[in-house]
Amino acid sequence: MSENFDTLIIEAEAQVEGLKKEMEQFKHEFKMNLIPFVQQWYKDFARNTVSDEPKLVKELGVEKLREVKGEVNKLIEDVPNLVDSYMDNNELWWHLRKDQRPKLERRKISDEIDKEIRSLLMDVAILLHKYGFMEENGGALSHEFQHGSGAYAKPIYPLGVQYPNELETAHSNYITRVDRTVATLYRIEKLKEEKEVQNAGDLWDSL
User: What's the total number of domains in the chain?
Assistant: First the structure.
């Protein structure tokens, strides 16, 4: 009977490894879908911010404004690297955490990931602020809207974000695999307990 338990445990552990590989794939899919979303956000945010401050635009002049746009375009080009920087934190992803807590919030996008994205979205605001934009509306860059603390504090977009379906679907698929993995890990623990019980009984019978 013990051999049957060993086989079941090995099979279940293989299922866990397979599910973790799928989670990694959905993490990658999530990041790939996040890139064009952030790039479009930067374009729209920059244009809207500049359009809202015609007086400052006039003061800056064409050459300075061209410099601002050039810096924004560089930031947009760098979005793939920025997404890696923000999203490759292992604590954001259940299958990479040291402490794999079984409970997850039932949200379209988890709170932890949502905060990182809303912080990422503010990088373009920080850039524009250096050129004098958003001085009067600087609330979004104030300490009231910070993610993290001390030297690691970063501005965070203070409003809700409407995420595209592709992002929400990738995250939902990821959470589904987490649920399956947690259930399988629980099953493995039960099998190990049952194996110990069986071994104890077999030992008794052998005496």
Answer: 1
